[in-house]
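Reopening: C-alpha cells for the DOR complex, inputs below.
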Amino acid sequence: MELTLLSPLDMHLHLRDGEMLHNIAQASAHTFSGAVIMPNLVPPVSNKEDVVAYKDRIIDAIGNENFTPYMTLFFKPDYDKTFLESVRNEITAIKLYPAGITTNSEGGVSGFDVEELRPALSAMAELDIPLCVHGETNGFVMDREAEFVSIYEKLASAFPKLKIIMEHITTKESIEALDRFDNLYATITIHHLLITLDDVAGGMLQPHLFCKPIAKRPEDREALLKVALNAHPKVMFGSDSAPHPKHAKEACGCAAGVFTAPIALQVLTELFEKNNTSFENLQAFISGNAQRIYGVTPIYKKVILEKKSFKVPAEYNGVVPMYAGEELSYSVKEIIDG
Ligand code: DOR
Ligand code: ZN
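Re-run output (same inputs, fresh job):
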C-alpha cells in the first residue's frame, strides 16, 4: 500500500548550528518542503544580521535539498516598529520564550505585562508577524502549561489582530483555549500525540523522551489526538524535533528534547492509519492548515510512503531518535520535487 503526502511542513523545528546543524539538517530537508526554524541558539537570533547569516548557514547545510527555512527571531520586548519593518522580509514569525523556561531561553520575557509588551506586539500585529509562544509558567512542572492559559488569554484579548501560535501544546486546557479566541492557533508534536508522562518516567527513566513541555496525562493526549486526527483548522504539525548529542541526553542533568525529524512522516502516517482517519486530514494537519494560517506557499514536494517495515537507526550522526532500534510500519519510498 502506498500513500502520497504533498509538501509537508514542520511548523516548529530546532536545527541548531555548527556541526550539529550539518549533522541533522538533512533529516528534515529531505522529506519536508519547509520548516519554521527556532531561534534559541547561543546567543539567540535577535537581529537582522544574525537571522540572515543563520539562514545562509542552514541553506549551506541542506546542500541540494529543496527546502525552505522559515526563519524566526527570539522575541525581545524592546523590538520597535522601525526594527520590525526592517526585518519583516527576512522572517516568518517571532518566538517568545518565558525567561529560563527551556533550552537557551535565559533572555526571554518575565512578568508578561501587557503595557510593557504593547509597542512590540502592536507593531507585530500591524505588520502581520505571527507570535509563536512557548507557553509555560515556572510553576509545578505538570501544571505549567495549564497555568499559562491565562497569559494566552490576556495576550489574545489585548492584541486581537496578532496571530498567536501556542507552540507544542500538551494539555486539554490549551485546546479549550483555541476555540475561545479567533487569534489563537497551535502546533502539536508527534511525541505528545503518542506518549504520556508514564512513558517518560513510569518505568525506567527514558531520557530520549524527556522534553519541555513534559508529556502529560492520558486524557490530555486523547484531547490532542482528537484535534490532530480531525485536522482542527487551527492546529498544525510542528515536530519540536530538538536534537541533543547522545551524551547530553544520557546524562545526569539530561537535556530536554525529542529528536523526531527522520521518523516524522512515517510515524504520523501510521498513527492516522491506526485511527482510521482520512488521508485528507493528515494532509491538512501536515501542510494545508499551516499554509492557510501562515499564508505560505511551500515548495512542491511529493513524498511517497509505502507500507513496508522501517527499522529506525540507533543513531543519526550521534543523535538518538525517538523509537531508535524499533520497527515502524511505513517507510519513505520516493521523493519527487523540483
Ligand atoms: O524539549 C525541548 N527542547 N523543549 C524546548 O522548548 C526547547 C527544546 C530545545 O531547544 O532543546
Ligand atoms: Zn521547541
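The chain is about 35% helix and 15% strand. Residues 2-337 form a domain with the TIM Barrel fold (CATH 3.20.20.140). Marking as resolved unless the reporter disagrees.
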